[in-house]
Amino acid sequence: MQMLVLEDGAPRCLDCADLGHLVFLPRGDTALTRRSREESALSAVVVRFNRRGGRYERQGVLVEEAGLARAEQRCLADDEARRRRRMRDARRRAREDVRFAEAFAAEIRRLFPGCPVERARDIAGHASARGSGRVGRSAAGRALSEGAVTSAVVASVRHLDTPYDQLLMSGVARHEARRRIMAAVETTLRGWRAEVSEAG
Predict the structure, then answer these.
(1) pLDDT one-digit tens code per residue, 71-129
(2) Cβ atoms of 192 and 116 closer than 8 Å
(3) Which of 9, 69, 89, 141 fits as disulfide partner to 136, beta carbons 3.0 to 4.6 Å?
(4) What is the spatial distance between Cα 63 and Cα 60, in angstroms, rounded to a whole number?
(5) In what order do the strands lie in the sheet containing 44-50?
(6) In sequence order, what are the residues at sequence separation of 6 or more whose Cβ sits closer than 8 angstroms to the Cβ of residue 159?
(7) Where do the DSSP E strands lie in 51-113?
(8) 3-state secondary structure of 8
(9) What does pTM read for this prediction?
């Protein structure tokens, strides 16, 4: 990648701009980038113009080689502490996910008392999986809104208790497939809304 500096509207090579002694550090490691700039008396941000997006995008930084070396030593020195912090954060998120899935399942059972306990747990776990983009991770889902919880239950019934997926695979349009299985979904939901003492 050829790097040029715009100076007074004209492109100049790094040596001409007195930046030739700097080394390029690609973007990606935030801690190393920050420390490299702290350890360097001179640094510069490297950008590339994205013609499609019509904007400049950051590619990395130019820093002094000695500064980069010192920054790498600093990062190595606290790498273990950062690794332990990442592990603690991962465990905390896992606990939060379990509690949220349990709360989501409990709300399913409140709205649909006839839904078997294990099925409610499965629906909750699927809908609330972190990073899934499903309804359980939406703002409404995290607030356990009735609409979001019901949407998760409807989706589960649609895929597991009706021929919806087979219809899609046979070439039926999505809106038509949903129309065809709507009655079956409503029948299951009505049954689950009814109080069933032996459910679960």
Answers:
(1) 998 888 887 777 888 899 999 999 999 999 999 999 999 999 999 999 999 999 999 88
(2) no
(3) 141
(4) 10
(5) 22-26, 55-64, 44-50
(6) 165
(7) 55-64
(8) coil
(9) 0.58
